[in-house]
Amino acid sequence: MTIHKITAGDGYTYLTRQVAAGDTSPERGKAAARYYTETGNPPGIWMGSGLTDLGLAGQVSEQQMTALFGQGLHPNAANIIADYQREHVEAGMSEGQLEKVNQLALKAARLGRPFPDYKHLEPFDERVSGRLEAIRTEVGRAPTAAEEKKIRREEARRQRRAVAGFDLVFTPVSSVSRLWGLDPRPWVRDAIEQSHYAARDTALKLLEENAALTRTGSSGQAQIETHGLIAAVFDHADNRLGEPNLHSHVAVSSKVLGTNGKWQALDARSFYRITVAASELYNTVLENELHARLGLEFEPRPDTLDKREPVREIKDFPSRVLSHFTRRRSDIEAEYKRLVDEFRATHGRDPSLPAAHELAQQATLATRNGKKPPRAWSKMRDEWRADLAETFGSKALTKVTAIVPIGGRRKSKPINCAQLDVAELAGRVVAEVQEQHATWTRWSVLAQVQRELRGTRFTTPTEQEIAVSAVVDAALSTWSISTEPPESVAEPTALRRSDGSSVFTQHGAERYTSQAVLEAEARLVEAAKYQTAVAVDGQTTDLVVADHEHRTGESLDPGQRALVKAFACDGRLLMAGIGPGGAGKTTAMKALSEVIDAGEKRLVPLATSASAASVLAADLGADAENLHKFLWEWTKGPHAEALARGQNVPREVGFFALNPGDVVLVDEAGMAGTMNLDRLVTIAAERGAVVRLLGDYRQLGAVESGGALRLIANECGAVELSTLYRFADPIEAEATLKIRVGDAAGLDFYQDAGRIRHGSRQGMTEQAYAGWKADMLAGRKALMVATSNANVAELCARARADRVAARQVEAEGVRLHDGNLAGARDLIVTRDNDRRLRSGVRDFVKNGDAWEVVERHENGALTVQHLEHRGQVLLPPGYVATNVELLYATTAHRAQGSTVDACHALITEEMGRENFYVIVSRARQGTVLYVATHELASLDEDEHVDAVKFDQDAYAAREILEHVVARETAELSATEQIRTSFAEAESLSGLVPRYDHALDVATDAHYRQMVERVLPDVAEEITSDSAWHAVLRALRDADAAGWDVPALLNTTVRRRELHTAESLAQVISWRLRRVIDAEPTPVADAADEIRYRLLLGELAPTLAADAGPTRSSTVSVPRAHSYDDHEQFYEDAVSAVLGSVRANQAREDAAWPTLVLALRRADALGLDPTTSLDAVIDQRTFRAGTSVCQAVALAVHHYLDAQTAGTSNNSRSIWRRITRALTQLEQAGTEPAAALADALESAETRPGRITLASLAARLQVAAHRAEDPLLPPWLRTIRRGADLQWQPYLDTRAELIRRRVGQLAQTTASERPAWTACLTAEPTDPASREVWLSHLAVIAAYRDQYRVADDDPDHPLGPYPESGRVGHRAYWVAAASLLALRGARPDANPAWGRLAADHYRTLGVEEQNRIGVELAKRLGQDWLGDVREPSVDADQPVYLHQLAAILAENGHLDVPESDPAGRRGPRPPSARGRAKLHRTQPVHTSQQPAPRVRRSEAPKHTPNPDGQPPPRIPPNPQRGPRPGQ
């Protein structure tokens, strides 16, 4: 089974135009269903449990495919839309009303959110350079390394197309398809078809039961089940080349209905994770079904016998029939390639996608008279049989049909599950898996169980399913150990899936290891600490090294000298040495060899392959062997027992004997498997020898269970080489070291040096070959390398074609394993060790040996000569066909350890960092990177469902390289995997999102009911919106902060019209955030106020009476006035208080919008704007020569601050202090009645009458003590709104977070990591230290939650998260703490800052940009906001004092003579400044609008194209530099 993405937009057209029509284009005007019937291809059918919710079944139409895969709609969207319109369209409707009906009709047919419409992106380099230049020009400094890395990473991840689904292709092995297409007996064909369908449906069942999942939560942290998959299945008889190829396309939609009742996107992680297991299940069921129906047996294909996963074909199926069709495909592909080469030579570029399609059709026509139009399956079979007879004679068909004799073959006796030794088989499965992986998942075990049981026949398919399940369960429960930590808290039922697993875990992603692996790793670590008596004395070592340097002229650097001395003189049983590519490991090994010899000990060199052992032997001038061969001799060889006892063995085995004092050296030890290293160290310990490992765990790792070298180096230390010698250019050497550790800045060298080419994969193959050829002709030793074997084979084919044309090799040849031909004078590589094939007395044919073909024999054998020692050997036909490939190019695995003059590398997107690093570190004089950015049109158009893959403008070379460098593919050891899993479980990055989602689920019903009560007319639209959870979280945060939430919601909704908003929920959540994030001390909830008053009345009636009247708790439906009415309300309030003359003057004042915003704040706080104005107006408010609106607005802000903070001494203000303290105590878990009683009791112990003020003071002290300094400030707890049954769980989760924050704070304070270097010193007095520690805890918590790994002290918060991205709000909370620890003082006059922010928001866009840039430059390193657009963050609360100063200096604000704190404000603007102000900002009248407001909802007189708040911010907004930057 293979899997491909189906891109939205036009990706589906390949399903309807190609796949659904038999892999060819239908005739114009023909409906798909009719076309299938006429041509004999069966129509597609719907499958999947998800169809029930759609009311869908039966055949698939092209219209349905277009709706589902093209538009993300219900397959029957056309009918649904028509029905809705029919029901709701009425005569006389206006154009606007009709448009609204059409929108609602489309919404009725939509399955969740529409597919994202990704905009065209500028070239990658332009996007990156634009953002970097913005930092230089707008902030006045160079971008930091962290900023540049973040920018490149973000730009490289920007998606081009939405994914509409996945195309799963189920194809039997070739022999099954050939038998099906060629056998004329209907019952045989039917049996094969039914077997294929049964296997396909079984695999789909596995996928549906285990991968039909979706994600939910604020950051997708919860994975929930769905109602099943929606899939369209199309069965086909042939491939694009017309060969017999029975296969099924299963197009699985990305739309799934979650158990939460919402249509959401399929979680593709589970799909990809289970793909291999599903494929193995398909193969197993297919074999069993064919055996049960036809008695067929299967056996491994000869050329795959030595592979990890052999391909099993029908036993005794004629091999010539298999190879016939494959060879024909190669002919067509060769012709296609020739046509593309001609096009490239003529036009100087790759053909476009349409042109490539035409060339593919020409290639087919030129080689086999073209593929015929779709025809009936019976007609196709007749043609295949005729072709077979023409090629192989009339008896060829008889040999094919003989595979299934009449009546079928005798079948094996089946068994049931009870007859299976489940425990033994489970142990065998895990034993095999642990040899290949240090850790594994359930699906790895399931795949291996399928392989183990493939030849076992069961009585029924159900019995087989039971047996497989039993073995998998036993393998995981008995023989495996989970690497995941146990649950720190039991999730409630609402947070568990139906199988009982937590929604916070990925289904099937749990990793396992075994006791054997853990013990092996532990033994290796212990061996690296265990001292032995095996050592050469230091003086001898120094003398030998000095002599070696003098004699060879090779001086060892300090690192090499330290390595030699450590390996020779340190007596530990096991030691590791780490060296990057080109660090001179070979030079050090030569010196070590002489030191060991001088110490009268023996060096036993081992490598991880036979060819590498030959190179090692040549380098050291001594025998060397393959690690696997060494272990085989000790465990399975005929002399194993004698070796273990230290007895004499034959001379040819003498190398493998170990004696006390021997030093075993393993070169390229990072490629050695953990279990093999453990076996080697155990053998060495028993024989009194020691082991030395030399390699680099950052290069390619073991193909077996890996991670051991890294574990040993991290646990016990290692000697590391750091000086690079291989590279002619030291700058290139430095670049490779950066790439080695994942720093993409290392790519700059290759880009600046012009060593990055880009284009189609086919074009890059040509260019890589041309570069390699030029170097070879120039006499340089060059390497041509690629990631995959398929790309290597293509490069080799290109090289051979050129050599054939130049008559350097013969045109004819023997077909090799890689599909290429090899003839006389071709260069080949052998791919398997065969000690029976000897090219001399001692040397044998090894995996990786390089040869030249001397003679090609008629039977397919080759006489070859070794390229180095020149020995000759005859390679038999079977070996040639299965284990020989052309040598002209190689993979990174085979290249590791080699050194060349030049390297030409084909880079593809699937490459990992380790592969890439090996490639760039091979060449002395330069590596050129040929980056394949796209594919040309494929001969098989089935592949075109992923349109991005063939889009030449989709990716830039640098983007792909950034992906490659960022992708670390090396396997962790089981020990490190466990540590990583536990660390992630304890980290705030896991704890906080889980707690946040739990709060969402626990409070959802409460806030839904609130919205329904307060906003009955629009409640359903809000709560059904995909952005509902943003509203939910805003309401919850407001509740936690002590807001009167119903009143706040009411005020927020009526602030401005909503009928033009595309998403009510998004707009409302934005408005709520603008208020609650800006008001740390809100007015208390009216209902709470009444409740607290009643409690106080019961305990102290006199004090309750002193508090004055209470507010009404009644919440009304939003007033029915319009936005204009609401703005008129503010104008009326000003007129009522100021009088008509001054009100008219105010409306003409440039600062009128600022005053409106101040009154809007009063409205949002639940305070009457008129009352607020009346309370602040007196003659002192108006100062000659100052702005009336500014003066009044400032006074209003002072008044509001006093009211919310309760700083006045009147009874109302004191009562607010009491209610706030009680709210805080209640949020902390203290009952209000108990808090009041304790405060009253405490007050009674003091002399004097209890007053309202003294009660408030005592409650405030208690509230301060109850504050939770260890919960991140951006994470607000809530005890109301959740059912009581949730509270213990939520409390436990909160406590885990507290512990983590406390631990982070103490660790950071004691260890003072590098990122704290620019923070103030830790205070000595307890009170100041407490404040300092709380700020430190906030910063450390932010870094932990958002995984900030960079230790740059200038940017301890890491990269800036733009507005709308996860973590933006938390970033600014942490930024306030960071600035505080850098010495910033809190603003003593917040009202002045609020006024500045309001006025800034009323400025025009250009002026905002100018002010923002000036502010960022003035702050320097203290500017923590957006460096591309400083204007968007200039009004952040942490910068308001500085913003006010700049606004005053630029003539935008009239500065009062002194602020309320007694400080002189910034200097008033000069006359010139005022003139500038009046030039740039016109006077506002009722007829003349104010300048466009950028960041807030503007008052009536401020027309604002962006005035509707940003309701359409996507979860990951794509932002780039503004035009002109």
TrEMBL record:
This is Relaxase domain-containing protein. NCBIfam families: MobF (NF041492). Gene3D superfamilies: 2.30.30.940, P-loop containing nucleotide triphosphate hydrolases (3.40.50.300). Residues 1453-1525 are annotated as: Disordered. Residues 1506-1525 have a biased composition (Pro residues). Residues 8-390 form the TrwC relaxase domain.
